[in-house]
Amino acid sequence: MQPEFDEDKVEQLRKEYFLSKSIEKSELAYDLRWPNAPKTYIVKVDASDSAIANPGFAYFRECRQLDTLKLDFCDYFGDEAIRELALGRPAHTLTNLVAFCNFILSFVKFRK
Fold this sequence. Notes:
This protein is mainly alpha-helical. The chain has one domain. It is 33% helix and 8% strand. The chain has four helices and three strands; from the N terminus they run ααββααβ. It has a three-stranded parallel β-sheet, with no helix packed on it. The relative contact order is 0.17. The model has no long low-confidence stretch (mean pLDDT 80). This is Distal membrane arm assembly complex 2-like protein.
């Protein structure tokens, strides 16, 4: 049984992202939206054995310095989740993605 998510919130986040496609516009929009936010970044996430599903990956979209994402034995996400990572900021900084024993992903699509 997959957890339920607020589909409207996920869609709103998705639209906000696509409205600001370039990194510079996105940085400016972020600074205008949260001018007093501390410059603290999430660098590593170990979500092994968690129940993160495809809609949950939308929240990784704005991680500015995400370097390592470990998702061992996570059974609730698939190709759509990886697409979310590829469309957001982690595509520029993510160097280590580990998804051991996830039989839903089709790695053939992502091979060079």
